[in-house]
Amino acid sequence: MDPEQLADIEAVDLAADLRAGRARAEEVMRATLERIAEVNPQVNAIVALRDADVLMEEARAADAAGPRGALHGMPIAVKDLANVAGLPTTQGSPLFRDAVAARDDIMVARMRAAGAIVIGKTNTPEFGLGSHTFNPVHGATRNPYDRARSCGGSSGGAAVALATGMVALADGSDMMGSLRNPAAWGNVYGYRPSWGRVPSEPHADSFLHQLSTLGPMARSPADLGLLLDVISGPDRRQPHGMAAEPVSPVAPAAMEGVRIGWLGDWGGAFAMEEGIVPLSEAALAEFEALGAVVEPVAPPFDADAMWESWTTLRSWTVAAGLAPLADRRDALKDSAQWELDRGLALSAMEVHRASVIRSDWFRAAAELFDRYDALVLPSAQVWPFDVETPWPPEVAGRAMDTYHRWMQVVIPVSLIGLPCLALPAGFGAQGLPMGVQVFGPRGSDARLLSLGAAYHARTRWPQRRPALRREKEVAHG
């Protein structure tokens, strides 16, 4: 297999070929390692890469054993917030630089059981905080469309590995757009499932914190469905798991009569850099060309109230995770210190009031979904920014008062755990990619992916880009 083929092949096709014996895990692994050797030094997406000889031996063993599951023989690199037995889980922090995991997390175990071969990890910001993938352990991951710019985050390494053809599937996680912003900036797809469809780990509190979820990234909605089915399903040790009907095979939806609501910049509440709204509207025009009805929607909820709720609940959740490190706070990056201090200072009633606002928004959204099959927002408020800049201090002339205010556009989905498909919308005037988020009511995962499949069949943005020319520029400067 030619390593450059990996940039455009869809995972469902590769997986089918591996299961049927039309492709061998050994040749796919060899091509994958060659691709990584060529491209990764320039973009720094994959970290903790395992020994090549060991990986080739595991691939040959997979060929000898025969088909084992949906991901038989598929190379996978796991986001460096999840545990893979025998590999470090640094979380991008010097405090955990040498923390080697003793066992697989649930998601990783499910991927292995489906036949995937874990090759290493993908880079992430320190503790996954902030939508810019850099940390003091592994450094920054660079955008393949402009290596001087950010790739987003926190699943930035995963997005870049997909965009450059180093993997055909990737996992990620999403609290505040971490599967959506990097997908937009990498010209790939990201999917935040209905909250509870993909289980987290059964430790510490499992009742109260409902903001973050694991999910898939890929170069097509069908590929998203392949990995989503593997990692979905309740864990009996956790109380909020959803029964997960399979979403695969993902087929394009009939779009005639589908009603889509366009929320734009939320009535001006979300500052947007020039060009993002028109490009998003061009993506909506593709849905209209397929037969959907697209209508503008006035802001359905107060953006400031939503932000107040979000920042309270997020700081509470992040501080709960970082609390064991409170006596080492000086070793944490500034945003982690900020979240820790805010979270530790919250009262129970402040958290309660934030959750009441969250509940009000959930009810308002439910009424919207009586009128629309899906709602749409841009995936990001800014274009990929300078890789040396920690976060944008202003957007379109408006000052940002926190390290994450510039990501506010993802809050309507994250706050109430809705399923959301981040799809590529094309390229702006500077040749940089952008995307939109298409979201629906809780449990509408299969429907959203089918809407995305219809869009993908028409646009095929991850495959239409001048892939090989750009990637050769990445590899050879």
User: Helical content, roughly?
Assistant: 25-40%
| Main sheet properties | 8 strands, mixed
User: Which whole number gives the mean pLDDT?
Assistant: 96
| Spatial separation of the terminal alpha carbons | 24 Å
Structural class: alpha+beta
**Biggest sheet, strands in spatial order?**
8-10-9-16-17-13-11-12
- Given the structure, what is the number of helices? 15
- Could you give the count of β-strands? 17
Looking at how many chains there are and whether they match, the oligomeric state comes to: single chain
- Beta-strand content bin: 5-15%
Specify Rg, calculated over alpha carbons: 21 Å
Question: Which stretches are poorly predicted, pLDDT < 50 over at least 5 residues?
Answer: 466-477
- Inertia-based shape: globular
Structure description:
The protein contains 15 helices and 17 strands. With 477 residues, it is α+β, with helices and mostly antiparallel strands. Strands 8-10-9-16-17-13-11-12 form an eight-stranded mixed sheet, sandwiched between helices. Strand 4 and strand 5 (139-140) form a beta hairpin. Residues 466-477 have low confidence and may be disordered.
